[in-house]
Amino acid sequence: MSQARPGLAGLVIAGGRSNRFGAEKAVQILNGRSLLEWAASALAGVCADVAVSARADSGAAGIAARLGLPLLTDDPAHPQGPLAGVAAGLAWAAARGASGLVTLACDTPGVTAAMLRRLVEAGPAAHAATADGFQGLCALWPVSALPDLKAALDEGRHPSVRAALAAAGAAPVLFDDAEAFANLNSPEDLARLRGR
Questions:
Q1: Please, what's the b/e burial string for 97-107 (b: 16 or more CB within 10 A of its CB; e: otherwise)?
Q2: What angle do CA 11, 15, 18 make, to 5 degrees?
Q3: Which pLDDT does position 182 carry in this prediction?
Q4: What is the mean pLDDT of the chain?
Q5: Using the 8-state DSSP alphabet, how is residue 105 labeled?
Q6: Cα 12-99-174 angle, rounded to 5 deg
């Protein structure tokens, strides 16, 4: 049974260039599902609505269309980086009447809906942390963070994700399983995960 919360929207962050991986990460297959689908499924367990942040010409955009998920593209006037996607997500969430946006990078398939539930229970603003450190793309952003974030991006500045979350008042939520947040930065990383 879904425990999605009506006041929350979810965003799969799949707009990266995947330069280190050598191919688009969002479309890579793990146990029969794309990495984008793993992230969207985890978000759907806690969020009433889920969208995908990706480039319009990407494979991720094609998967989003197949899944019937809204595709959010960055404002071309904003500096490139994950916060451009977060800003687009916050604007979309606000338009839907949501109070918060849960973000999850597409290359962390070990993050589950249950883990995201812990994060949102610590709200209204929170981010994951592990013994390995800050896990800022797994976060709950209050929609009220949009004006300050948009102002910075409009000025051509892309703050660090850590600074933007701190400005939003996000509290760290410590998770014991650091491996669940390990980014898949190479085909070898994905092969190891398949092996597990």
A1: ebbbbbbbbbb
A2: 130
A3: 75
A4: 90
A5: E
A6: 60
Q: Which of 105, 126, 114, 97 is nearest to 8 (CA)?
A: 97
Express each pLDDT in 150-172 by its tens digit.
999 999 999 999 999 999 999 99
Angle in degrees, CA 66, 118, 171, rounded to 5 = 110
- Write out the two tokens for 165: 């979350």
Residue 157 in tokens = 């500045």
Amino acid sitting at position 9: A
Q: Summarize pLDDT for 30-65 with one digit per residue, the tens.
A: 888 999 999 999 999 999 999 999 999 999 999 999
3-state helix, strand, coil in the chain (%, to 5): 40, 25, 35
Read off the tokens for 131: 């013994």
Report how far residue 126's alpha carbon sits from residue 172's, in angstroms, rounded to the nearest whole number: 6
CA 86 to chain centre: 8
User: Residue 133 corresponds to which tokens in the numbers above?
Assistant: 């450190």
pTM, to two decimals: 0.92
Q: Is 2 helix (H, G, I), strand (E, B) or coil?
A: coil
Helix axes 35-44, 113-121, angle to 10 degrees: 50
Strand ranges in 131-170 using DSSP code E only, listed in sequence order: 133-142
